[in-house]
Structures are given as structure tokens and as C-alpha cells.
Amino acid sequence: MIKFFKRFWAYLTGAANQKFDEKADPKVQLQQAIMEAQDQHRRLKEHAANVIAQQKQAELQLNRSLTEVERLNNNAHQAVLMADNASKAGDTTKADQYTKAAETIATQLVSAEKSVDDQKNTVLGATEAAEQAKAAVQQNGQLLQRKLSERQKLLGQLEQAKMQEQMNKAMASLSETVGEEVPTLDEVRLKIEARYAKAKGMSELSENTVDSSMREIEAASQNVEAQSRLEKIRAEMGIAAVTPAPGLESGTPDAAEPTPEDLVGKPAEVVEQKPAEG
To answer: Which 8-state DSSP code applies to residue 149?
Structure first.
């Protein structure tokens, strides 16, 4: 049961993180990453400073111990010398006191020298750690500079991505609008072509129908009536009928023969050029 709840909690956390990453602003996340890198560098520098401080403190302690060793060494020599002088002077009591003091100083000197040896090893270790800390700070500083430079590049790419997304959105909106509110060019073309094809089809059908033949017959009949009427008008005016020249269609007036319309308004001698029939 506990394992189930752990897995369920991990699933919820993963889903929440995924949704958060999808909704989060990359610019803000980039700034957060840079701030975290800067905080890490600051903490690393503080740690390195503590390591270097320990190394400096170890050096100070070593210098004090070396000074103490030198002092004890001098005192030991002085005590031995004074004990020897007292012994030469026959003052055994002073000689014994100085001898015991020299032994005590010698004991302290031995302890101080051992402490110096230990402190030397400590200083060496602290110096090595300090050098490693300095190198780590320098390396991390270079890494931070690269991250800062990369941030500027990523910000530029982010702005370009935003502009491209806006352009894509505008083009998609334009494509969606054309075709909904107004017809597209392809739709208009298809509509016109369909209408033209239909009109051509109806025209071809009309040319082959009985109505077309009836119209031709009616037109020919009207032409015959018109010719008969013209003949009657010529007869009334005493104008001979026009004989069509060879090669011309029947019913077509000679081009040299004036029509009644051409004679309207002309002098009488022009009208009387041709004798009346009968």
C-alpha cells in the first residue's frame, strides 16, 4: 500500500511538473537558472574562502609553534649553561635546580617539535585544499560566464521563436478567415467555371433543338414577306423589280440599283431614269 501511494504521488508530481513546464515562461525559467548558477558560484566562493582561511590559520599556528620551539630551544641551552656554571662554581643546589629546569624545558621542546611536525602536515593539506578550492572557483566562474553568454543567445532565439509563432498564428488565422467570411480564389474560380460550362452546354443544346429550326423558318418567312412588300412598294412607285446579278443570292438587291430609301429626297429626273412597267 505504501509503495502504491509513493508511485501515485510520483505520478502526480510528474504530471504537475509537466503541466507547469508547458505553461511556464521560458524567459522567467532562464532567469531562474542563471540566478541559481550565480547562487551556486557564490556558495562555492564562500566555501573556498573558508578553506583558504583554515589554511591561513594553520600557517599562523605553525609560525607560533616554530617561534615557541625556538624559544624553548634557547631556554634549554641557557638552563644547561647555567647548570654547568653552577656546578663549576661548586653550588650543587643551583646546579640541580638548573638541571631539573633544563630537563623540563627539554620535555616541552620535544612536545613542541612534535606539534610542529603535525602542524606542518596540516598546513600542507590545507594548502592543497585551498589550491583546489581556488581552481574550482576559477573553473566555475568561467562556466558561469559561458552561461551568461548563452543566456543572451537563448533570449535572442526566444524572441525569434515568439515572432515566428505570432506569424504562424496570423497566417493560420488568415487561412481560417478566408473561406468562412469571404470565398477563396479557388472557390470563385470553380464557381465561374461551373457556370460557364453549364452555359456552354445549354447553348449547344439550343443549337440542336426544334426551337432553333423554327426560328430559322420564321426568319426566312419574314424575309420573304419583306421582299414581297418591297416589290409592292416598287410597283406603286413605278420602279422595275431588281434582277439579281449572276452569282448573287436571290432577294439581295443590286449594289448599283438604288433602293427606294436612296431615292427619297432626290430630284425628279433622277427618279425618272427608269421607265415605268406596262
So the answer is: H
Tell me whether residue 115 is exposed, middle or buried, using C-beta atoms within 10 angstroms of its C-beta: 0 to 12, 13 to 18, 19 or more: middle
- Give the count of beta carbons closer than 10 Å to the beta carbon of residue 135: 11
What is the mean predicted confidence (pLDDT) over 25-33?
A: 79
Work out the angle at residue 85's Cα, subtended by the Cα atoms of residues 83 and 91, and round it to the nearest 5 degrees: 75
Band (219; pLDDT cuts 50, 70, 90): confident
Region(s) of the chain under CATH 1.10.287.1700? 2-177
pLDDT digits (tens, 9 = 90+) for 111-161: 999 999 999 999 999 999 999 999 999 999 998 888 888 888 887 887 888
pLDDT tens-digit map of 252-272: 444 445 554 454 444 444 444
Residues 212-240 as b/e (b if ≥16 CB within 10 A, e otherwise) read eeeeeeeeeeeeeeeeeebeeebeeeebe
Asked whether 274 and 239 are in contact (CB, 8 A), the reply is: yes
φ/ψ (deg, to 5) at 14? -65, -45
Fold of 2-177: Helix Hairpins (1.10.287)
Question: What pLDDT, on a 0 to 100 scale, did the predictor assign at position 195?
Answer: 87
Alpha helices in the chain (DSSP H): 2-23, 26-88, 92-177, 185-207, 210-237, 260-263, 268-271
As a whole number of angstroms, the distance between CA 162 and CA 157 comes to 9
- pTM for the model stands at 0.47
Non-local (6+) Cβ contacts of 47 within 8 A are: 133
